């Protein structure tokens, strides 16, 4: 069944003697992020019957694997927004052309 939303948590404790972070999480998005960094072989995972993904994990991370950010949203000027918009338009057009050329090769290979 898993944990109720109000029971989900992630805890990190810094161990200064060993210079490592000891962690525990039962919050699925945090479990996914930790597994991407450490891999399943480097965590102590607890599973529920019939469940492929871990229900909770205990892990250790080196100091250089943990960082903190301010969390402030960067404000963009109108000029910066326009530059970003044009870059996205160009990227989407390039991807569209790439997809169309891949599809045309599939069509040629079939005929």
Topology:
Blueprint: E1 10-15, E2 20-25, H1 28-38, E3 44-46, E4 56-62, H2 78-110
Antiparallel strand pairs: 1-2, 2-4, 3-4
- Topology order in helix (H) and strand (E) letters: EEHEEH
Helix proportion range = 25-40%
Q: DSSP strand (E) fraction?
A: 15-25%
The count of domains is 2
Give me the side-by-side strand order of the main sheet. Answer: 1-2-4-3
In total, the number of strands is: 4
- What general form does the structure show? extended
Question: In oligomeric terms, what are we looking at?
Answer: single chain
Number of DSSP helices?
2
Instruction: Note the main sheet.
Output: 4 strands, antiparallel
- Mean pLDDT, as a whole number? 89
Q: Specify the structural class.
A: alpha+beta
Low-confidence stretches: none
**N-C termini distance:** 51 Å
What does this structure look like?
This protein has 111 residues and is an alpha+beta fold. It has two domains: 5-65, no CATH class; 76-111. It is built from two helices and four strands. It has helices spanning 28-38, 78-110; strands at 10-15, 20-25, 44-46, 56-62. Strands 1-2-4-3 form a four-stranded antiparallel β-sheet, with helices on one face. Strand 1 (10-15) and strand 2 form a beta hairpin. The longest helix is centred in the C-terminal third of the chain and has 33 residues, at 78-110. The model has no long low-confidence stretch (mean pLDDT 89).
Keywords:
111 residues, alpha+beta, 2 domains, 4-stranded antiparallel beta sheet, 2 helices, 40% helix
Question: What is the gist of this entry?
Answer:
With 111 residues, the chain is an alpha+beta fold.
């Amino acid at each position: 069944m898993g944990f109720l939303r109000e029971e989900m948590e992630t805890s990190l404790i810094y161990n200064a003697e060993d210079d490592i972070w000891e962690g525990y999480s039962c919050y699925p998005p945090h479990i996914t992020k930790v597994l991407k960094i450490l891999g399943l072989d480097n965590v102590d995972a607890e599973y529920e019957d019939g469940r492929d993904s871990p229900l909770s994990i205990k892990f250790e991370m080196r100091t250089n694997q943990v960082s903190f950010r301010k969390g402030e949203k960067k404000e963009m000027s109108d000029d910066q927004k326009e530059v970003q918009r044009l870059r996205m338009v160009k990227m989407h057009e390039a991807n569209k052309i790439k997809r169309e050329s891949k599809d045309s090769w599939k069509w040629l290979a079939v005929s």
